[in-house]
């Protein structure tokens, strides 16, 4: 049976989860841009306070950290610490031939809790809630990697 | 037809783009090292100002941020925010069976604009130019992920 | 011959190395949490000093950088600069059909030196030793990417 195909139900489940997470990650870059434009600040490179069509009235305060921009940067950093590993672990996990139901729970559960984590971080909920929403995704990731490792080792 | 093979023209196009981008990303680590050695500074860990054969004359100022080193670190951070997602989205996009011409435009267009973005960032061009060179790559990435998502959902 | 299968010895070697590295990367997130809990500090978001069940006695100093937490964050950053590229380059390298022996040396060599690098960074060994342990992994990564590029280009 062909596993690595968008026609395979388990692989398609992975591909849906993976592309939603990729689009979410890319959206953070755009959200950073939107917030930098809104604040006319939160820039990071010395050349960003040169006078240009997009920045007609520059001043050095534009290089100071901006709270609304830094929040998105922290969220993006959290994505970078998690998503690339999910993307690869999820792909390899498909090769262990999980049932469709297990794949759906794990992949869509990951996506759902990551999106909830994003909503909680964006709206500055408590550290406790953020931690509670981050943990299931991390556990799913550990499970998928550990399961793949066991199968790859031939156990 | 075998898709995931370096003999398949579309997959080979992806593999060329992916490996060029990986080599570019790895080069940032080496460029950071080169600039730290040149500046004898820009270090980040307290233990980096211990006297060693590579650092025979240490002093605490070596831990202060160095402009030339920080520039490469910002460029590398931009890579981390973009390339891992391109690498996975590009792989999945191959499975949607694009034509070779479309694949070449998207993959090589991504590589070309990322290398131009790097050149602009390295030489401290304006934020406007950097943004103009970052945008096509991000749009290509969004297109590939969205297209894969649609196919994986069965539309 | 089926290459992308956990039953294929070369691919299984890749999968073992990849999942061990993924588990290592995820462990950094958990180690950050452990050290933040131990120090009751090293937090980064303003909302993290709100009174909650997990932080019953908040104070603003909890947002100051904590040395033990920052060390893990630097180690994790080093992972992010290296591992995602290894994960993809390693996968593509399998498609060049290396011998099992070559694959084992490269993949397990990468894992061994990365784990040694982690041990050296965690225990604050000299910059020289850290560099010596980082370099082989980076060279292996460059070799795998360059070899794949050559094969993909049809040389």
H/E series of chain A: HHHH
* Gyration radius over CA of chain A: 20 Å
Largest sheet of chain A: none
> What's the overall average pLDDT of chain A, rounded?
96
How much of the sequence lies in strands of chain A comes to under 5%
- Determine the fraction of residues in helical runs of chain A and give it as a percent range: 55-70%
What is the terminal separation of chain A in angstroms?
A: 22 Å
Shape of chain A: elongated
Unreliable parts of chain A = none
Largest interface: A-B, 35 and 33 residues
Number of helices of chain A: 4
Structural class estimated from helices and strands of chain A? mainly alpha
Record field, number of beta strands of chain A:
0
Oligomer: homotrimer
What can you see in these coordinates?
The structure is a homotrimer of 155-residue chains. By secondary structure, chain A is mainly α. Helix content of chain A is 70%, strand content 0%. In chain A, α1 (9-39) packs parallel to α3, α2 (67-94) packs antiparallel against α3 and α2 runs parallel beside α4. Chain A is elongated, with a radius of gyration of 20 Å. Chains in contact: A-B, A-C, B-C. At the A-B interface, α1 and α2 of A face α2 and α4 of B.
């Amino acid at each position: 049976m062909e596993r690595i195909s968008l026609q395979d139900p388990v692989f398609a489940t992975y591909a849906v989860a993976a592309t939603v997470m990729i689009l979410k990650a890319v959206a953070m870059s755009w959200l950073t841009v939107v917030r930098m434009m809104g604040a006319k600040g939160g820039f990071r490179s010395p050349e960003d306070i040169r006078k240009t069509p997009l920045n007609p009235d520059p001043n050095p305060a534009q290089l100071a950290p901006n709270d609304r921009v830094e929040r998105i940067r922290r969220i993006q950093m959290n994505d970078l610490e998690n998503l690339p590993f999910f993307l690869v672990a999820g792909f390899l996990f498909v090769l262990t031939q999980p049932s469709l139901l297990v794949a759906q729970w794990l992949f869509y559960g990951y996506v759902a809790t990551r999106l909830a984590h994003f909503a909680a971080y964006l709206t500055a909920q408590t550290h406790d809630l953020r931690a509670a929403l981050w943990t299931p995704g991390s556990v799913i990731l550990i499970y998928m990697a550990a399961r793949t490792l066991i199968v790859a080792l031939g156990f």
